[in-house]
Design a protein that fits this description.
binds calcium ion; 332 residues; single chain; four-stranded antiparallel β-sheet; mainly beta; Methylamine Dehydrogenase, Chain H; 5% helix; 2 domains
């Protein structure tokens, strides 16, 4: 766990200024932790609302996959939740995306681990043992759905022999994150792997793509929660060592990522001694690590999932909030 002194020391070490009150060195992260702009409390004990998030077609959704077979909720105005009629089995809502305007939900434990993909009411079961749908991501190249040992992009299957935890498209290439594999990121177009920085870095646990530095070209952000870091790579890079390292203080910083234009949002779900979790951001042209939010209760795990919308609105899930009922907050 990140003790306060260690946090401050690391912050100072990486040039982000010092957060300690009473220190007369420049305070570069003075972001006040304000009341969330929106706040949706999970209603099912143990459901884990906020384990997954997705938005599109004018609606926002959160998964609560961990009780009663799972559920997906629409985040309605005035902090209200509206149930999405689904099938409620097999961790329904663990995977979640809005693709081409259609809500897509994964239930990886359905059918004794075959898994299942649900598209606006139409069910597609996986093959035996496939765990279909633990990850569901909408990318500009198409819908990516994970299965045991790989993933598929629409009808194209990539068997990479490793668990895929995230997917992103960069310059027309599909990139798959494989934090438990020998290498970190699989480039599906070239069949190339981006090597990891260290055996324990878990690089590839989260990926996202956007123009993060305002130069008109997209960059790839790679979360490495095993080393509490995020690496930002130019599209031409083939190694994490070529990237810009954003070092966090602990708490599995980099476990979840979301990119917007000029905005990188980083989840650290085990941040703080009480495992409340925290959400950070880095804006284009700045080296400052902003704190956008911290978990409200011990074990909340805020930042287990994060979402950025096109207009810069930021949402975060805290699936462990209130004993595991979960919580979603809008932080910007
Ligand atoms: Ca850029
Ligand atoms: Ca750049």
């Amino acid at each position: 766990m990140a003790t306060p002194w260690r946090h401050a020391a690391l912050v100072a070490l990486i040039g982000l200024g010092c957060r300690d009150k009473g220190d007369d060195s420049p305070v570069t992260d003075s972001t006040p932790i304000v009341t969330p702009m929106g706040r949706w409390e999970g209603v099912t004990p143990g459901g884990g609302l906020g384990a997954s998030l997705a938005s599109g077609a004018g609606a926002r959704y959160a998964g609560a996959p961990w009780a009663d077979g799972g559920a997906v909720w629409r985040l309605a105005p005035e902090d209200q939740l509206t149930a999405v009629p689904g099938l409620a089995s097999g961790a329904f809502g663990r995977g979640l995306a809005v693709h081409d305007g259609v809500l897509v939900v994964g239930a990886p434990l359905a059918e004794d681990g075959a898994g299942l993909l649900w598209r606006d009411g139409v069910e597609e079961p996986g093959a035996a043992g496939q765990l279909l749908g633990a990850l569901v991501r909408s990318t500009p190249l198409g819908l990516v759905v994970s299965s045991q040992g790989g993933a598929r992009l629409e009808a194209e299957v990539f068997d990479v022999g490793a668990r895929i935890t995230d997917a992103a498209a960069l310059d027309g290439r599909l990139l798959l994150g494989a934090p438990a594999a020998t290498d970190a990121v699989y480039d599906a177009q070239d069949g190339l792997w981006i090597p990891r920085l260290s055996p324990q870095d878990e690089a590839g646990a989260a990926l996202c793509v956007a123009d993060l530095d305002g130069d008109g070209a997209d960059e790839l952000a790679v979360g490495a929660p095993g080393m509490n870091a995020v690496v930002v790579l130019e599209a031409s890079a083939s190694s994490l060592a070529e990237g810009r390292l954003i070092q966090g203080a602990g708490g599995r910083f980099g476990q979840a990522l979301a990119c917007g234009a000029g905005l990188l949002v980083i989840g650290a779900p085990l941040d703080s001694d009480g495992l409340r979790g925290a959400v950070f951001a880095v804006e284009a042209g700045s080296e400052t690590l902003l704190t956008l939010g911290v978990g409200e209760t011990d074990g909340a795990e805020l930042g287990a999932e994060v979402l950025v919308e096109a207009d810069g609105a930021v949402f975060a899930g805290a699936p462990g909030h209130n004993g595991g009922a979960g919580l979603v907050v809008q932080l910007r």
